[in-house]
Amino acid sequence: MAAGGPGEKNKPGSSVRAGNDPGRHRVGPAASLTDALSFPGRASSAVLSSVSLQLLLYLSGACWALHLLATLLMILYKSQVFSYPHPYLVLDLTLLLLMGALEVTRLYLGTKGNLTEAEVPLAISLVLTAGGALLSTYFLLWQTLVLWADCILSTTLLALHGLEAVLQLVAIAAFVS
């Protein structure tokens, strides 16, 4: 049988190119960008993860770090300047630390779910986003002493949570279908 015949395609060490054989990847100038980005074992090489959601998650993480630092400094300021009852100070600090643990978990699961195109971590992140929005509302409305800086920071965080929730729903819908 001559090299390049129908039986040569499956022999190891054969110099015949596999062409569109799903078990092989093309190498060299004939390889396309989709071959370089395809994953073995996947039925489709279409990328469904959301770039805008990923950017919003990074922005939300940076905004939340600013919120944490600013809120800690403002609680320290309020406890020195105003009469801040000790039980309420402990409550506000505890809720701020709880919010920190919630945000770290939410951002991790949201990033993981988006990049791996998995619905479950992204759905858990969506539920945690609702919890983070509730805690942001606490720091916006129900905190013991609310300054205008608290209002600005919490409103910004609430807006980011709302946008993330919408984009997470869209991404979950894209992953499921």
Please describe what this structure looks like:
This protein has about 180 residues and is mainly α. The protein has 2 domains: about 1-45, no CATH class; about 50-175. It contains 5 helices and no strands. It has helices spanning about 35, 50-80, 85-115, 120-140, 150-175. Mean pLDDT is about 85; it is low at about 15-20. It is found in: Cell projection, Cilium; Membrane. Its main location: other. It is a multi-pass membrane protein.
Q: What's the number of structural domains?
A: 2
Distance between the termini: 47 Å
Give the mean pLDDT: 84
Helix content bin: 55-70%
Rounded Rg: 25 Å
**How can the largest sheet be summarized?**
none
- Poorly predicted regions are 14-19
Order of helices and strands: HHHHH
SS strand fraction:
under 5%
* Number of E-type strands: 0
Structural class: mainly alpha
Region (Disordered): 1-24
InterPro entries: Uncharacterised_TM-17
Pfam families: Transmemb_17
Membrane topology: Multi-pass membrane protein
Secondary-structure blueprint of this entry?
Elements: H1 33-37, H2 51-81, H3 86-116, H4 119-142, H5 148-176
Outline of this structure?
This protein is an all-alpha fold and 177 residues long. The chain has helices at 33-37, 51-81, 86-116, 119-142, 148-176.
